[in-house]
Amino acid sequence: MRISVMLGGVAVLALSGLVYYKGTAHPAPPRPRPKNVILLIGDGMGLTQVSAGLYSNHDRLNVERFPVTAMMKTHAANALITDSAAGATAFSCGCKTRNGYIGVSANKKPCFTLLEEAEQRGLATGLAASCSITHATPASFIAHVPDRADMEQIAADFLKTSVDLLIGGGQKYFEARKSDARDLRREMEEKGYAVSSFKDKPLQELNFDPAQPNVWFSAWEEPASVLKGRDYLPVAARKAPAFLARRSDKGFFLMLEGSQIDWACHGNKAPEAIAEMLDFDKAIGEILDFAKQDGQTLVIVTADHETGGMSIQEGSAMDSLEIAFVTGYHTAAMVPVFAYGPGSEQFHGVMDNTEIYTRIRLALDWH
Ligand code: MG
Ligand code: ZN
Fold first, then answer.
1. Which CATH architecture has domain 32-364?
2. How far, in Å, CA of 102 to CA of 297, rounded?
3. Quick one: which ligand is closest to 329's CA?
4. Residue 13 in this model has a pLDDT that exceeds 70
5. 174 CA distance to ligand 1 centroid (A)?
């Protein structure tokens, strides 16, 4: 016998003498909310780039420390094959946009970024990259310019924010501008920033004063590759969270990019790509060490797209890989997502790249 009745709006189902109460479940225990969010972007880092790093490093990578993974679709508003501008804007604003567009929607409307929202909500914010800080990926979190090549306009947009930490190259777009006579370094110093560069001190020797926002330029133009001696990204990954944690009681948002995996793959250069992958993985390890210690930090690692159609070929062995590429540009292959810490349960299944934005906001309970 089966009887359904409504009792005070609650459906009660009686089945063979057992009574089920619908809608009277105990409320779910509150999910722990992250205080800090660190988004790590490996530019051009598809599954093969990760695998090549792994199998060139005695079958060990820090990405193996992540308990949660997902797959992500990367296409742009106007193209199946995204570029880094549209890819990063999907992360920063949650909207699909056109290739080449930085922090603006497909109809060129500026979109409010995670970094800007974090700042408005009182969190400390930071960007670090192994390319110029005005390059497409970091720029998409802070600038609103429908042309990724307009580096000087992008640099000027940095001054419209109160970003707490910048680490990257592209000093010349701030200090030797062609489009106007502004000296953005002086303007930043007037706003209270401590600005220094690779010419003053290597990042290893620099102690960021938490009383001031800080900028460290790693290069006049683009930083060198790892194989040509660049070594600051893992150092940035160690110093940035510690600094940002002291800049606000409300937490922080940091985006750190392994920028040159992409460039090496554009050039179809396997040793360079693997070196850049391993450098980025070292940075990931530093971030995970912080997050483990801190316990309140959501860490997400992903890529804007795959580059090169990289593959590990027949004839490869552990620590001795035969690599091939099928293109000098990006591909549409899905890319991996790795998540750690409170809020990491949001990241699973097959996601769209815009969901990096929406799921970070869900994890933070921002609405
Ligand atoms: Mg990039
Ligand atoms: Zn690229």
1. 3-Layer(aba) Sandwich (3.40)
2. 27
3. 2
4. no
5. 19
